[in-house]
Amino acid sequence: MSDHTSGLEQAIERVVALGGLDASAMVSASVRLDSLTKPPGSLGRLESLAIQLAGITGDLTRTYSRRAIVLAAADHGVARQGVSAYPADVTPQMVANFLAGGAAINVLAGRVGATVSVVDAGVAGAIPAVGAGAATLIRVPIRAGTDDMTAGPAMSHDEALRAIGIGLDVVAALEHDGVELIGIGEMGIGNTTAASAITAAMTGLSPDRVTGRGTGIDDATHAHKVAMVARALSRNTPGASDPIAVLSTVGGFEIGVLVGVILGAAGARIPLILDGFITGAAALLAAGLVPTVAERCIAGHRSVEPGHAVVLERLGLRPLLELDLRLGEGTGAALAMSLVDAAVAIRDGMATFESAGVAGPAATEGVT
To answer: Does residue 9 carry a catalytic annotation?
Structure first.
């Protein structure tokens, strides 16, 4: 048994051992919220978010002030098939932009007090040198991008396990540092094509149902992209019963890293906020390995990618936001962190009916 296989098995066992969400903590959170000076449930999704957080952590007092965005980056061989509006050179250039602090995720993470860690899992080109400080670069490239999945497997089985192991290691370091909330994002030209193939493989839906326009491609390029997803699935024939095979045949190194981050966060009882379509595809794979992972994830938003709605429905997750985002980078996850702040503030800051001297709901027993 390889170290990578052993690490994955241990991560799966850790999640399985937790079972479902902490029902007792969720009841206690619900009772607390119902005692506040408002009609029960009147703050809607903020209340359900506070209850979910309690269920994930088993803690009714945690403030989630230590938070991080993990942004995994890698290149895709399928990009050579012309499935994106941008060249593959953009991947290393955008990694440099993250490190320099010029990207949307830097701005949004700064607003919610989250650190940004960029994991180079297989960026093909040289990352331009920039001033340090805006984000941490973790350089663990498996190799310079995946193979073209339309011609064969994107990566080997061992490489898929290595990618997941990288994600597990990243979470272990964040857990050691006391991080209480994780958001995930990605960067990699061609990765919506990989996410579409993963989603089709894991759901059994046709490529045209789950393949969108990614970076904003035109009609002809979109039709070509759908055809490339279909070709990749026909060439590799991955099955939903084996998520590692799906990852290795039609996935990406950064998607594998995200699978590891999701599993690691679930096992550590750290709430994890998904971003868009690519992170959702990673969550589909993680939930294929351990179904209870899904309820330990928070859907930050729903993007305009058609496959993203499919992914969230299959995971049983309702997005907190719907802002027509399609950038990636963890931007939707960062935005959703502000709602975690709001849920915690409501939980801790509002007066109760008793403390405020406000009459609670009128008793209705016996009223006809």
So the answer is: no
**Which residue blocks in 290-330 are alpha helix, DSSP H?**
306-315
> Does residue 21 fall inside a structural domain?
yes
* CATH number of the structural domain spanning residue 289: 3.40.50.10210
Q: Quote the crossing angle between the two packed helices 253-267 and 3-18, to the nearest 10°.
A: 40
Q: Could you tell me the pLDDT band of residue 365, with boundaries at 50, 70 and 90?
A: low
Cα–Cα distance, 266 to 18 (Å, whole number): 9
Note down the domain range covering 14. Answer: 3-61+348-356
pLDDT tens, position by position, 205-226: 999 999 999 989 999 999 999 9
C-alpha to C-alpha distance for 134 and 259, rounded to whole angstroms:
25
Answer whether 117's CB lies under 8 Å from 343's CB.
Answer: no
Marked catalytic residue, from 186, 329, 354, 365 = 329
Residue 39, helix vs strand vs coil: coil
Q: Are residues 147 and 218 in the same domain?
A: yes
Tokens of 263: 């599993």
pTM of the model: 0.96
pLDDT tens, 47-77? 999 999 999 999 999 999 999 999 999 999 9
Alpha-helical runs (H) found in 86-139: 90-100, 104-111
**Residue 133 pLDDT:** 79
- Alpha carbon distance, N-terminus to C-terminus of the chain: 69
42 plus 162 within the same structural domain = no
User: 366 lies in a domain?
Assistant: no
Q: Please calculate the CA angle 197-186-144 and round it to the nearest 5 degrees.
A: 80
CATH number, domain with residue 45:
1.10.1610.10
